[in-house]
Amino acid sequence: xxxxxxxxxxxxxxxxxxxxxxxxxxxxxxxxxxxxxxxxxxxxxxxxxxxxxxxxxxxxxxxxxxxxxxxxxxxxxxxxxxxxxxxxxxxxxxxxxxxxxxxxxxxxxxxxxxxxxxxxxxxxxxxxxxxxxxxxxxxxxxxxxxxxxxxxxxxxxxxxxxxxxxxxxxxxxxxxxxxxxxxxxxxxxxxxxxxxxxxxxxxxxxxxxxxxxxxxxxxxxxxxxxxxxxxxxxxxxxxxxxxxx
Length: 245
What we know:
Layout: H1 2-8, H2 11-43, H3 57-84, H4 87-119, H5 127-147, H6 152-165, H7 169-179, H8 199-231, H9 236-243
Helix pairs in contact: 2-8, 3-4, 3-5, 3-6, 3-8, 4-5, 4-8, 5-6, 5-7
């Protein structure tokens, strides 16, 4: 296992491995997103209270999930980079940040669009909305802090520390609907008991969640390959790669 771990931390080995992984992430993501979109918009029945307006759930919920998943992945990579001094781990954290920020913005935007007809307001400073907005600012802060240093290694370490500290916001987002009065409904899918959503709606939502996850993995992997090339641009293996191109 440790041999595999150290091989994965090698930039040339990881670059080649990542190139092979992109289609395995991207093709299933495309298929699931197409199926989930068609199923969610055309096959799933209208909600008995919200009517067809509920269908934005097929974008909002996966985006919100990926916003948190991406941040945790970024923070774990940052911790690995700090502990084991792995260049690829820092590159992974850097690749995650803009993608996670984009999904967080999408979650905020679709939540506001959904909230206006359902709650009568575009925005309310409840626990869930506020903590997701904090998550967006954490992503932006990580990116800004990394670029604020002329020394890339110092920027990586500073951004990694902020990413790790910011993980405390993830359980706040998750449990905000239980801890405070909020416009958001309690969990309807991730419960120990049966989900509070019928299967003819749930199956397409799960397809979208998995599709978004694979899409996130594909985009981050492609960005990560670019990060590796940028950070290793003076390395011998890059010159050999260009010579064989």
